[in-house]
Design a protein that fits this description.
TPR_rpt, Immunoglobulin-like, DUF3857, Jelly Rolls, TPR-like_helical_dom_sf, Tetratricopeptide (TPR) repeat protein, about 20% strand, alpha+beta, 8-stranded mixed β-sheet
């Protein structure tokens, strides 16, 4: 359709205003025929509607629709009943018959409005030519010259021309070929009014307020007796002014339902308090009048304030007009503070939690000197929406993980949520909540959803439990709801107010916290520094921090608006940074060396992988469980599927090496290098094999090649440093540690390794300086402080170490810190050790805490306490084999041989890998029980790995404890031939030589051991083994 003419002629008289409107609309296409559905609303109590003509122009033919016999149908629709609004508006409707494409529809009508409440005042809005093109537009306003009408033009309207016609003044404005107004994108509301001509005879805002002041004063009068008097007396009797105001507000909000009454005088006149109380319903005016009456009787100063929900912003720049207001609330003065009370709301149970509403401006209804007041809330000081996401991925990255979300809302957000859910119950409510959560997290299978509202705290809570298979397909998991910034586009089309400010969501403050419990052995490569954000951009304050600690990834993001708008220049300056922040999505990277969990492997073994990647993943899981033949089978299938990829061959070569088939391993490594000569992984694997077979020189060569290919590979640098230490080349080892620290200055392990090397070199002062550097560089990192303490312990500075442990525990009490502090105490401090170990067990009844607690109590002569501790730990963690082993050994040491051996038998049946067998052998031998069983476990481990240094050292210790001195020395000789710096074997052999009476050899071995580890003697003394 095309609007050919829009003509509006306004006649203003005291107490009456008449608007004549005429239009010509050409119907150009079939969709344009919809314009033929003509509906004209009016209020019969104040308006008179006259339709002057309705014509159809079809070429030279003119069809008079009304003369042809068609009539308007008049209906009362009450279109806003669902919002509890009664306006009494009638609608005249007609659909001209025979309307065709190409016709021009002409309509002329007038509405005359007279409302005695306004006492002769007049006001009008005209020339709102904004959304559609118009060929010819005209508007005029005519009024008696003795009425002081003021005019104001908005937008791109041409200059208003005024003239005198007898005793009248006429203002006129015309435009041709009007194009739709270009309103500035994203601007505050005051810049989006567009073309509009305002007319009003109110001389000031005080003049307007004076009109309403007596209306509210009259309506707020309370009756002298009756039920409402009883309620007001009850409220007045409360001892505190704030409590009285709260009671009055609660009565109005909770006991008077909201119904908007815009019929008759109700459009502008508030119902009196007694009527509202009798009805038990009322609109904003009625509720405000009742609330004012209750507050005044309670001795609280308060007045009504008119506000506009749509025109509040920029109200101070407009002409005073009644039409700009559509709501009223109460401003109460209590104890020097202002409280904004809205009787139409619900759930305001604490005045201190009520935020000033963001209406922009309001007009206090005062009999004299009223002026607009600013009504804007300050920035929020606490999140109004706080979401906590918890994911338990300990069973693995590829199996469904328990997924829970809790969202807590406060303030208007909480009240709004409660109102929206109030009418939903049972299955309908559950379905709505499930649909909400699915919309938020569509990858989660929702199992339960709940919502609650606490009136006392004003908090609304949404919660969900479910299960989700996390998407790690790209090797990364995108964290949920932790993005900051946005893809800002602050460009605007040419037009008026192109440089207007940009509106911001205000006030808002959101927080998202997400935690993911990771699988055991998940080696984090999360870059906390890269994810961190602490800055204010474009009026929004952003904070984001994350990290991995104790097997859990945690991240928190907050966003808070500080201002309601920013200038166009500020927006342009902020745009690049906002976009850059939006690109900084936080991902958690799956480690390259990640190995399937038992749960994942169980699923994978039931499947038949068809891709090389899936076969490699499963093969790696089998490899790490020492199921080398099964791993080799999967690697071989992967190699067949991906013959041009070196990974399957490199992994298979390592599996062959673990089996002892070094020839097969080398064939695979050579084949991998044929595919990719510059791959660093075969070099790393050659280095590992060389170290396992005590060939450190070959290891250095291999790791050097790997580092040449990937200079930033800290794992290869660590490995080469270890090889250099085997060769007693500490300077080279220190150089590698220096490179590690240069790559990652926050790597605490590098500091610890450097300290250990310096200690080996006898550089005690430098060793202690390294401990100081750790504590200074990471002053609030408990792990770093514990590392610094461990260095002090190794340097035989226990008092200084204790101070560091104390400092770490003061920052964050953690089980391992208490355990380490307990072991740093002298043996004589039994009470201190007991207190620390009990504190550790209270936090985490696993790990070394149980072992050391049982040992402490046994040595203190209290086997019952030792047994009680291990029984409690096993009950709490029945699947933890390490705890079961502690109980087994504790039982045997406490004289419960049968029960202890029963536990031990369970563990022996489970022990199938060399590592498990060695652990069983060593722990049993150091406990000094079941030595024959310990020896059998060591022998079983050596059968799988004949040249393993650790297992051979455990076997030697077991033989030493059994009194088989020569056999022990023979095993120690084999260990030291493979690794001359193996401290345990040096000290064990020193004990063996001592028992044979060869003091010289014993002293030589002891000196060599102490040089490497000054605390080795203390450690073996704890086993009851001295020389």
């Amino acid at each position: 359709m095309r609007i050919l003419l829009s003509d509006q002629q306004v006649q203003l008289e005291r107490g009456r205003q008449t608007v004549y409107s005429a239009s010509l609309i050409e119907i150009e296409t079939p969709p344009g025929l919809a314009i033929g559905n003509i509906s004209v609303p009016w209020r019969p109590d104040t308006d008179t509607l006259t339709v002057h003509k309705l014509l159809i122009h079809r070429g030279a033919e003119v069809i008079d629709v009304l003369k042809a016999g068609q009539t308007f149908t008049v209906v009362r629709r009450e279109q806003n009943l669902e919002q509890a609004m009664l306006d009494g508006v009638l609608t005249a409707n007609i659909q001209p018959e025979g309307l065709q494409v190409g016709d021009v529809l002409e309509l002329a009508m007038s509405v005359s409005h007279a409302d005695p409440v306004v006492k002769g005042h007049v006001e009008q809005l005209a020339a709102a030519w904004n959304p559609l093109p118009i060929t010819r537009a005209h508007a005029s306003i005519r009024w008696p010259s003795d009425i002081p009408v003021h005019l104001r033009s908005n937008g791109s309207l041409p200059r208003v021309v005024t003239r005198k016609e007898g005793g009248y003044t006429v203002a006129e404005i015309s435009m041709s070929d009007v194009v739709p107004a270009v309103l500035p994108k994203g601007a505050p509301a005051r810049f989006r009014i567009g073309r509009l001509l305002e007319a009003s005879d109110f001389t000031s805002w005080a003049d307007l307020a004076k009109l309403f002041a007596p209306l509210f004063a009259q309506a707020a009068q309370l009756p002298a007796d009756g039920a409402l008097k009883t309620e007001s007396d009850r409220i007045r009797a409360l001892p505190d002014a704030k409590a009285r105001a709260q009671a009055a507000l609660t009565l109005v909000q909770d006991r008077i339902r909201y119904v908007a009454l815009a019929m008759g005088a109700g459009g502008l006149v508030p119902a009196d308090a007694a009527t509202t109380w009798a009805r038990r319903y009322g609109d904003c005016k009625a509720k405000t009048a009742l609330l004012l009456g209750l507050l005044h009787v309670a001795g609280i100063e308060a007045e009504p304030v008119l506000v506009g929900s749509g025109f509040g912003d920029g109200l101070d720049q407009r002409l005073p007009m009644i039409a700009l207001f559509d709501h009223v609330l109460v401003r109460a003065h209590i104890g020097g503070r202002v409280f904004w009370l809205d009787g139409t709301r619900t759930g305001d149970t604490d005045l201190d939690r009520i935020r000033p509403p963001a209406f922009g401006w309001g007009l206090p209804v005062l009999p004299e000197q009223a002026a607009l007041v600013r009504i804007m809330p300050p920035p929020l000081t606490a999140p109004s929406v706080a979401t906590t996401i918890q994911i338990d991925a300990r069973n693995g990255l590829t199996v469904p993980a328990p997924f829970t979300v809790d969202t807590v809302m406060t303030g208007d957000e909480a009240i709004g949520l409660n109102a929206s859910l109030a009418n939903l119950t049972g299955a309908a409510k559950d379905q709505a909540l499930r649909e909400y959560w699915h919309g938020q997290y569509d990858f989660v299978e929702v199992k339960s959803a709940a919502a609650s509202f606490d009136r006392a705290s004003g908090e609304a809570r949404l919660s969900m439990t479910g299960s989700a298979k996390l998407d790690w397909s790209s090797g990364w998991y995108e964290t949920d709801g932790t993005g900051v910034g946005y893809k800002a586009d602050f460009a605007r089309e040419a037009g008026p107010d192109r440089d207007a400010p940009w509106a911001l969501p205000f006030p808002y403050y959101n927080r998202v916290q997400e935690s993911i419990r990771l699988p055991s052995g998940f080696r984090s490569v999360f870059d906390s520094a890269a994810a961190a954000v602490d800055e204010t951009v474009g009026g929004i304050e952003y904070h984001r921090h994350g990290g991995v600690k104790d097997g859990t990834f945690t991240i928190e993001k907050t966003e808070r608006s500080l201002v309601p708008e920013m200038t166009n220049a500020e927006a342009a300056a902020a745009q690049p940074r906002l976009r850059a922040l939006a690109e900084k999505t936080v991902y958690l990277r799956r480690p390259d060396d990640y190995v399937m969990t038992d749960a994942e492997l169980a699923v994978a073994l039931k499947e038949s992988p068809t891709t090389a990647v899936a076969l490699l993943d499963r093969g790696n899981a089998l490899f790490h469980r020492e199921r080398y033949d099964d791993a080799i089978a999967d690697y071989s299938k992967a190699a067949a599927l991906a013959p041009h990829t070196y990974w399957p061959l490199a992994d298979r070569g390592l599996a062959y090496a673990r089996k002892g088939d070094l020839a097969a391993a080398e064939r695979d490594f050579a084949a991998a290098e044929q595919i990719e000569p510059r791959n660093p992984f075969t070099a790393n694997r050659r280095g590992w094999i060389a170290m396992q077979n005590n060939r450190p020189k070959e290891a250095v060569t291999a790791y050097t090649r790997a580092i040449e290919l990937t200079p930033d590979d800290t794992a290869a640098l660590y490995a080469r440093a270890a090889a250099y230490r085997k060769l007693a080349d500490n300077d080279a080892a220190l150089a590698d540690v220096g490179k590690i620290k240069a790559i990652n200055p926050t790597d605490i392990q590098a500091y610890m390794l450097r300290a250990n090397i310096l200690r080996d070199m006898g550089r005690t002062d430098d060793t202690l300086a390294e401990a100081d550097a750790i504590a200074k560089t990471f002053p609030t990192d408990t792990y770093a402080l514990a590392a610094a303490a461990a260095i002090r312990i190794a340097a035989d500075r226990p008092a200084e170490a204790m101070a560091l442990y104390d400092r770490a525990i003061a920052i964050k009490p953690e089980a391992y810190l208490y355990v380490n502090r307990a072991m740093a105490r002298p043996d004589s401090d039994i009470a201190g050790r007991r207190a620390d170990l009990d504190a550790a067990l209270a936090l985490d009844a696993t790990g070394d805490a149980v072992k050391y607690k049982a040992d402490l109590e046994l040595k203190a002569g209290d086997p019952k306490a030792a047994l009680a501790a291990v029984d409690k730990a096993v009950a709490a963690h029945p699947d933890d084999d390490n705890i079961l082993l502690v109980r087994s050994l504790t039982r045997m040491r406490a004289g419960q041989q049968t029960a202890g051996e029963s536990d031990w038998a369970i563990l022996r049946a489970k022990a199938t890998t060399p590592f498990q067998l060695n652990n069983l052998c060593w722990e049993t031998a150091t406990a000094g029980v079941a030595l024959a069983r310990a020896l059998e476990a060591c022998d079983a481990g050596l059968a799988k790995l004949p040249n393993d240094v650790a297992i051979r050292d455990s076997r030697a210790f077991t033989l030493l404890r059994m009194g088989r001195i020569d056999d022990a020395i023979a095993d120690y000789d084999r260990v030291l031939a493979m690794d001359p710096r193996e401290t345990s074997s040096l000290w064990g052999r020193a004990i063996a030589w001592s028992k044979k009476g060869d003091r010289a050899k014993s002293d030589a071995d002891a000196a060599a051991a102490i040089k490497i580890d000054p605390r080795v003697e203390t450690r073996y003394a704890a086993f009851g083994m001295t020389r």
